[in-house]
Amino acid sequence: MKRREFLQKVGVGSLLGLGMPFFARAQARPVKIATLLPLTGPFAFAGNAGREGFVDGVEYVNEVQGGIAGRRLELIVEDTGYDVAKGTAAFNRVLSRERPDELLFVYGDSTGLSKALAPEIARLALPYSATSFASELADPKTYPTIFVFGPTYNDMMEALLRQIRLEKARARIALVYSNTEFGRDPIPYAKERAKALGMEVVHEEVTPPAFTDATPIALNIRRANPDFVILQGYALSAEPLILRAAREQGLRAKFMGTYYSAELALIQRAGPAAEGFTVTYHNAYWYDTLVPIVDEMRKFRQRKGRDLSYRPTYYMGSLGVVLAVAEALRRAAGAGKLTRAGLVEYLEKLEDYNGLGLQRSYRFVNHRLPYTKLYRANVAKGRFDAITDWLTLA
Questions:
Q1: DSSP 8-state symbol, 227
Q2: Global pTM?
Q3: What CA–CA distance (Å, rounded) separates 367 from 59?
Q4: Cβ neighbours, 10 Å, residue 87
Q5: DSSP structural state of residue 152
């Protein structure tokens, strides 16, 4: 039956009899967020863990927090294979398919993809974040809708260099990094800052993002004789190999890494060679059961009949993004501004929120969260133990 015939047949009074909730339900379109993750390819283990964090977070928002002002939060997931061209195609596909008043946030998979998309994101005024902590993206003047949900790689280097200075003021440092946007991003800052702090960068080793034999790298490091070695740009694709090779070659240098090295899999794969490996990390770990969000998500997953064993850092980071974005969306909706511009405005006002302890704070400074802790690998316990309180890097 055509709509006009239907209206004539039932009459206005009959429609009123259906009640206003009928109209409200019909008009309450979902609020959508999209995530572009490497579900296949070299970093599929991280992408799938991140997807799980997004799924749990969205379901928690809908089932426990009541959605976004009565509207359901909907998740769109696309695979990028950790390939910029494939990721760009996925981005364009989502943007062409979805309504701008429904799709309010997009999350990408890498530094390379984010830099490739940044001009278009700025043109569309689209709220965006990514797995990347690239320093270039934390620039609200150039990219007013891009947010970095953690410290930048420069900030992480700053935290590590401060720790090095505490341990040895005139330290000799080696920088080992992948020849990727991810790997190269903080290297100029690290070199400049080390020099300013009175340290010497005695060796740089640029490698592919993945390889099978780290012995040549370890030999090169040993010849340089550094006190500290900072690894950057691998996401567990190489760090265990480097640590084991360094141990086999008798290196006495202390090894360090940034956020994507701060995962228990590093300890499991490197074994005793991981002892003392120092990392920056800015979320709660799944084993931090005294943190409210960890306890809450364990109970939530138990109710859903899901595995309660250790959830990796990629899960925790994704969960943190979902909860913060949902909170900002709720506040925007309460102000009658449930739009892309409204989300940006209320993300910038989120300083009194910490995701039930998942982060120190969501107070953005230049659109990044300049807070982290340092952790050290404890092989006997099979975990990373905090060695500092929260550090502010603004």
A1: S
A2: 0.91
A3: 26
A4: 26
A5: -
Question: Measured between alpha carbons, how far is 280 from 348 in angstroms, rounded to an integer?
Answer: 24
Q: Tokens 């807070």 label which residue?
A: 371
Structure tokens at 216: 């040549």
pLDDT in tens, 298-331: 999 999 999 999 999 999 999 999 999 999 999 9
* DSSP helix, strand, coil percent of the chain (3-state; round to 5): 45, 20, 35
In the block, tokens 């969306």 appear at 329
Residue 77: enclosing H or E segment and its boundaries? strand 73-79
Residue 278 structure tokens: 């120092």
- Give residue-wise pLDDT tens across range 174-222: 999 999 999 999 999 999 999 999 999 999 999 999 899 999 999 999 9
From CA 83, how far away is CA 61, in angstroms rounded? 30
Cα–Cα distance, 154 to 370 (Å, whole number): 10
- Spatial contact of 282 and 259, defined as CB atoms under 8 Å apart: yes
Beta bridge partners of 268: none
Residue 387: phi and psi, rounded to 5, are: -115, -5
